[in-house]
């Protein structure tokens, strides 16, 4: 079964050549993109969809969310808006509500959040554990996450639960808890920040998880200039996320991590993606991450929602893209790229064609996964020009119409 989507005013491919095609068409065949190019040259297909002069771009790749949780933190948000500052301690409130929730409720809540994201154009999504914080509840969160998300990250090292000894808890995260979540996860993460895990504890967690075969990522430099970025680069993490407070040395280390990467061919040794989370920055009243400076330094950047009940209760990638353009001074093309190809790079899912057994996400090219986001607008520029507007018109996820 093939579908021709034609009369596309602007097709922003985010492929390696950064092509933006006018008057374009795409053919979707099963889960893959079978053809794309000028509408005038389009081949016949079983079915046709008239885009009516709308824009099409890759579905968002949200490489950083925390969707497996119960409860909400409205009171904490209100206090913050009244002048309180964010601290990691709020995680415990969500941990308590999450532990109390039944499997059914936790699954239902996570599924509903994924549906919200997909209805806004997200077609590939990572989510984390981190609100269980004991062996039983982290394993449960990982299992539930694996049924709702494309990629699952183990974040046992999110907070040391009250009453626990930090070193003993770190041992648990590196040992029995890791064993329990291992069947469900591909990644491990650590909140390396004052009030959460020290550099030494974070290193222990990341090394143990890497030895267990997991890819690693880091929450770093969110609340102050900390060791997170340097640790992430040193250990070869796929991404370091937040990156609000960076020294010149941090930016240089991130840039250096990409020195073995050929961005034109998308080959070589991947470095550490800097993942900016602008919605979180606004909701916590932190300075926006220096996305412009990172791009100018040659760092590969991703944008993600960080959807969670504490610091960023939104899965709107369009909101993040608009903020990145309006306030971080990325161009529309750069912001959309960071929210699609950048996220895929952060998840090591940017490559893969027909013969590879896994299809690339986050960019549009023949053989890639047919993850498409059609806007009710003639160009992607409208994402920033009309911020906050409901611009998602249609979504295909792995070739299936999801909206
Ligand atoms: N910073 C650490 N973790 C989450 C927030 C978790 C929470 O407050 O519930 C984040 O990415 O912002
Ligand atoms: Zn996070």
Automatic annotation (TrEMBL):
N-formimidoyl-L-glutamate binds at residues 131, 308, 310. Catalyzes the hydrolytic cleavage of the carbon-nitrogen bond in imidazolone-5-propanoate to yield N-formimidoyl-L-glutamate. It is the third step in the universal histidine degradation pathway. This is Imidazolonepropionase. Its cofactor is Zn(2+); Fe(3+). Fe(3+) binds at residues 64, 66, 219, 306. It is found in: Cytoplasm. 4-imidazolone-5-propanoate binds at residues 73, 131, 158, 222, 311. Belongs to the metallo-dependent hydrolases superfamily. HutI family. Keywords: Cytoplasm, Histidine metabolism, Hydrolase, Iron, Metal-binding, Zinc. The gene is hutI. Its main location: cytoplasm. It is an enzyme of class 3 (hydrolase). Binds 1 zinc or iron ion per subunit. The keyword Iron-sulfur does not apply. It holds the Pfam family Amidohydro_1. Zn(2+) binds at residues 64, 66, 219, 306. It catalyses: 4-imidazolone-5-propanoate + H2O = N-formimidoyl-L-glutamate. The keyword Iron applies. GO terms for molecular function: imidazolonepropionase activity. Its EC number is 3.5.2.7. Residues 195-377 form the Amidohydrolase-related domain. Pathway: Amino-acid degradation; L-histidine degradation into L-glutamate; N-formimidoyl-L-glutamate from L-histidine: step 3/3. InterPro entries: Amidohydro-rel (IPR006680), HutI (IPR005920), Metal-dep_hydrolase_composite (IPR011059), Metal_Hydrolase (IPR032466).
């Amino acid at each position: 079964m093939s579908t021709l989507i034609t009369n596309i005013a602007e097709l922003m491919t985010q492929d390696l050549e950064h092509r933006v095609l006018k008057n374009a068409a795409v053919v979707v065949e099963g889960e893959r993109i079978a053809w794309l190019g000028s509408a005038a040259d389009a081949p016949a297909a079983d079915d046709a969809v008239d885009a009516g002069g709308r824009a099409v771009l890759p579905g968002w790749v949200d490489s950083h969310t925390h969707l497996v949780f119960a409860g909400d933190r409205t009171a904490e948000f209100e206090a913050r808006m009244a002048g309180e500052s964010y601290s990691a301690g709020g995680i415990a409130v969500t941990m308590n509500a999450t532990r109390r929730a039944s499997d059914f409720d936790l699954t239902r809540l996570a599924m509903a959040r994924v549906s919200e994201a997909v209805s806004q154009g997200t077609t590939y999504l990572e989510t984390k554990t981190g609100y269980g914080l004991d062996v039983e509840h982290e394993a449960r969160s990982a299992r539930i996450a694996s049924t709702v998300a494309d990629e699952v990250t183990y974040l046992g090292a999110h907070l040391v639960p009250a009453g626990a000894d930090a070193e003993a808890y770190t041992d648990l995260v590196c040992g029995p808890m890791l064993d329990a979540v291992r069947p469900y996860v591909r990644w491990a993460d650590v909140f390396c920040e004052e009030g959460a895990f020290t550099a030494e504890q974070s290193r222990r967690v990341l090394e143990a998880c890497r030895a267990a075969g997991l890819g690693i990522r880091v929450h770093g430099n969110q609340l102050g200039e900390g060791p997170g970025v340097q640790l992430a680069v040193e250990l070869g993490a796929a991404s370091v996320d937040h990156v609000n407070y960076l020294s010149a040395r941090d930016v240089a280390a991130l840039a250096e991590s990409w020195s073995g990467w050929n961005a034109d061919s998308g080959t070589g040794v991947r470095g550490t993606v800097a993942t900016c989370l602008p919605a979180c920055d606004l909701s916590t009243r932190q300075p926006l991450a220096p996305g412009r400076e990172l791009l100018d330094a040659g760092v590969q950047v991703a944008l993600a929602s960080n959807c969670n009940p504490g610091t960023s209760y939104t899965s709107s990638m369009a909101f993040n893209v608009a903020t990145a353009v309006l306030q971080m001074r990325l161009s529309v093309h750069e912001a959309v790229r960071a929210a699609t190809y950048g996220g895929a790079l952060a998840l090591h899912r940017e490559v893969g064609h027909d013969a590879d057994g896994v299809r690339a996400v986050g960019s549009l090219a023949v053989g890639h996964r047919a993850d498409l986001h059609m806007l009710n607008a003639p160009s992607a520029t409208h994402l920033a020009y009309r911020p906050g507007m409901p611009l998602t018109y249609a979504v295909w996820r792995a070739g299936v119409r999801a909206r």
